[in-house]
Input
Amino acid sequence: MRRSDPSTRLAITGIGIICSIGCNRTEVWRSIVESRAGIGKLTRFPGETFPTDVAAEVGEIEGLLPIDGREARRMSRSDLLAVIAAHEAVSQANDGATNPLPRERAVVSTGTSTGGLLEGESYYFDRLVHGRARVAVSRVLQQPTSGPSDAVARALNLGGGVLSNATACASGGAAIGMAADLLRSRHADVAVAGGSDALCRLTYSGFNVLQAVDDHPCMPFSAERKGITLGEGAGYLVIERWDDALARGAAILAELCGYGSTCDAHHATAPHEDGRGAEAAMRGALAEVGAGLAHVDYINAHGTGTLLNDSAETKAIIGAVGEAVPASSSKSYFGHTLGASGGIEAVISVLTLQNQLAPPTLRLDVAAADCTLDYIPHTPRPMAMTNVLSNTFGFGGSNVSLLFRRA
Amino acid sequence: MNGVAITGIGIVAPGAVGVEAFRSMLDAPATAVAPIDRFNTEGLSAHTAALVRDFKAKDYIPAMKMRRMNTLSRYAVSATRLAIADADSRLSSASGVALGTAFGPVRTSVDYMQEYVARGAALAPPQLFAESVANAPGSHIAIEFDLRGFNITLTQRESSFLAAAMFASAQIIKGTVPSAIIGGVEEVNEMVFSVLDRLGALAHAEGELSERMRPFDRRRNGMSIGEGSAIFVAEGRPSRQPYGWLAGFGIARDTTATISDWGTGDAQVAAAMQAAIDDAEIQRSDIDAIYASANGTKRGDLLEMRAIHRLFGEHVPPVVATKGCFGEYAAGGGFQLAAALLALRDQKLHASSGFEEADPELQFTPVTAPRAADLRYILVNSISAGGGVVCAVVSREQA
Output
């Protein structure tokens, strides 16, 4: 069995993103630079009686689709968000290159938590009213969490395989890590990897009944933080082996150096208070590059805004890389996009390295006593950055940390 | 290190709990597909499935913990306890967990939405929400057995389990973890069953033809679905004589597949099989048997057989279709690997349950009765509706 050799360098040649602060990488980065959040009043589910009504929603997407309407009608919203972001990433990877991506050896690896649950809910409600025999099943064909990967592969005609990671909020990061191994072991030549999730009633209600949602826009690492803001969106990377990207004449945006994946083995929904699993994940990502890494310059934190996460993650960061490394939460812009967060924040990390500008943590006036790092409050910070870690953690104590390097 | 040893197997299956009971079911061969008494199938075309019965989770999980688990988690944690006992070893806490499930916690989500409707969005039970994520079973396994390595859950339809096995094996080979729990878990529920029925995917009675899953049979008209969990203890350096070794994997996608059916891209399916053979560093002619993905669907079985013919030409090795025993999706696809490993251990091929009449279009006959065989390498296929393909080679000895 071929080994995934960490010394095989991986190039990121395309990025695509859609979330509440923009429908492509240019719009998203402009919002980041202008410290403009995309959090507002929840509009998706009028008439529902949730205890909170704040969300980071993506608006109308019909005009953004790179596929025809007939095909789109059979896809879930999570699928469509995925197709938009993946199409942007693949287009960039082909732009200006001497040779196009070898689609027949391109694997799609997607993390998603809800998949087509939004459409599944509508199907469920209609069944209650009309009975199971009278509701069209075509509406739930894409309910399984395999939907976004299948949709991207079908829309872009990719033949290298499909993988769907449903590891709660760590899904997107895990999907990217898995793609890295497939490339390094030469099971695929290209990976379109990331995450996608649409807002749905079940998750909006569920996080509320867990009392994990802030009734105002989330305030990661703040003394006043009360929980998350739920968001939606998708983010994808195109990843290739470094030498293949050079041979193709592709522009290399950043390097994916490694990833670490661990479990707290502690609680179904809460992180271990000492952040032991998160620290081990960051150490795992750093271990993949061995002694070649001098330091981490910035951490795109998981930073959800919950009391438990931000405290545990702070301890984990201190344990893994020390107190001096700045860390911020871009969820303060576009909320917690659940299974998509690993993909979306990987794209933010690549943009951070390209622009040498670290995104801030918005609305952070006073950091909590248990949050003792430099969280880059309010405005982006120009910084010289070579190595960036991106953290994503999820229910069940799953932790993934990705390590990116400036190209 | 070349290959990953499987040193323990835990089974919670329709018709069998424990690996030796599972072996007896395969040897018979018996089918666990039977009329459904769990939910109402009135008005549907299909009325049978392979359901787990005669299983008591309390035999494996303390009552206090069991209350926090949904059915999927109970199946998976119980099967893990059986697998670790079977391996007769204590796993390092550095071990990882990788599970596959095709549909995951659909019933839990439906239960949550029922409460949502009945009590309101603000008052649904938080415990149901916690169990509504697909990785809840993997999380419970990690907590119960203190496993702190990777913990991931893959959901790639019929290929879910083999995809998880591929990921975990890569981690062990890479040296990230010394060992892992690899597994699959599934639950049959009314929502998934009725949707598959409405799509025409399920085996059903047709004139004189009784309702039965008939892999590779001329009269096949759909699959029967199953549930349960298969869990494997995977080790880089085996602590005991292993059942066999995961020796290689291949992955591809049939780009001709439709959203809910199989396509006609046999070249791409064959490429995944060849990739697994290459990864195992063996030749096509080394494959002694194929444990097929065949599930009794018209297009799926035809696609797989064309791919097998394309790859092996005139020298097709014996092909075994085991899903007639326990149904499609059962254990997320994990029972198929368990059957292949038992075949290696016992040097005996299983019968293809449900097959009776050869299909001229397929130009072959699968193994119809159990028989002794000299088995060193077995190819295991999983071919999904929608186009995903993952194949594995399992070997008797370490390469």
